[in-house]
Amino acid sequence: MTNYRLRGAMLNAGLTASALAAAVQVDPKSVTRWISEDRMPYPVTRTKVAQVLQQEETLLWPSLLEDAEACAVAASEIERVWPMRSSIRSETWHALFSRVTEELDILVYAGAFLIETLDLADVLEWKASKGTRVRVMVGDPRSAAVRARAEELSLEWLPQRCQSTLDHLRRVNGICVRSHGATHYASLFRFDDILLANTHANGVWACHSPVLQLRKANSNRLFTFYADSFTAVWRRSGPPRD
Fold first, then answer.
1. Has residue 76 got a pLDDT over 90?
2. Is the pTM of this model over 0.70?
3. Residue 194 to residue 216: CA distance in whole angstroms
4. CA–CA gap between residue 69 and residue 156 (Å, rounded)
5. Which of 25, 192, 216 is nearest to 105 (CA)?
6. CA distances from 2 to 38, 49, 57, 61 (A)
7. How far apart are CA 88 and CA 66, in angstroms?
8. What are phi and psi of 81, to 5 degrees?
9. If you count Cβ atoms within 10 Å of the first and of the last residue's Cβ in the chain, which end, N or C, has fewer?
10. DSSP 152-181
């Protein structure tokens, strides 16, 4: 079987088999076998090839997603797991917000804990003034999704809390704030190459639910999965309603 993905990536990069072999320090015959016989390089070599071609390993070799090694590739992105969001210390949140320089994305229903413990408005305005792109999505208090979450958790005050957060953040200079009506299954917090996914479960408050800390790596499977989810909701959301 021919590996058309690898061959196409090489053509796009303008690399011959000999050139790629030299770049990753293997015999040109090995590269030829990778293409014509769909052979799988060793993990270290795969990483080098992906870097040279500026592609994900799983795009060049989709079979990685079908075996046990796929689990190891994905697991390598997980830096830490907190059993509950409430177990993350405020110092950790401060450190994450302080380190971000390029992309700061937040997807929540109300996110009141950020305002109550971090002086979020001041932090976001400060980061935006330094050139960081800041995008925040808060649940639309009039949406069916927020009403359903409020009913599920017996939180009659959730819509009003969403409105309070929107009102609070709309006064912040330099950031983009949108309201969303999406049923989201994880609150997301992206700080450049680090992403926190606070999973949601039926009948359980987000503060009592686990958080995965992911770091962008060569595979990017989990990181990209959640980052793409944020982008999808962002495209469907809009400015807060008055």
1. no
2. yes
3. 6
4. 46
5. 192
6. 6, 17, 16, 11
7. 34
8. -130, 125
9. C
10. HHT-TTHHHHHHHHHHHHTT-TT-EEEEE-
- The pLDDT value recorded for residue 73 is 61
Question: How far apart, in whole angstroms, are the C-alpha atoms of residue 87 and residue 94?
Answer: 14
CA-angle at 179, arms to 176 and 183, nearest 5°: 130
**Tens-place pLDDT, residues 21-37:** 999 999 999 999 999 99
**Structure-token match 């944020």, residue found:** 230
Q: Tell me which residue has tokens 């293409």.
A: 35
User: What would the pLDDT profile of 102-111 be if each residue is shown by its tens digit?
Assistant: 999 999 999 9
Give the Cβ contact number of residue 46 at 10 Å. 22
Share of the chain above pLDDT 70, in %: 94
Q: What b/e readout covers 176-186, taking b as 16+ CB neighbours within 10 angstroms?
A: ebbbbbbebeb
Take residue 192 and report the two structure tokens written for it: 């450049």
Backbone angles phi, psi at 59, to 5 degrees: -80, -40
Mark out the alpha helices in 57-154 (DSSP H runs): 57-60, 68-75, 90-99, 112-118, 120-129, 144-153
Q: Which residue has the tokens 């009003």?
A: 160
According to DSSP, the residues that pair with 199 across neighbouring strands are: 186
3-state secondary structure of 40: coil
Q: What is the percent of the chain with per-residue pLDDT over 90, rounded to a whole number?
A: 73
Q: What are phi and psi of 178, to 5 degrees?
A: -135, 155
In one-letter notation, the amino acid at residue 81 is V
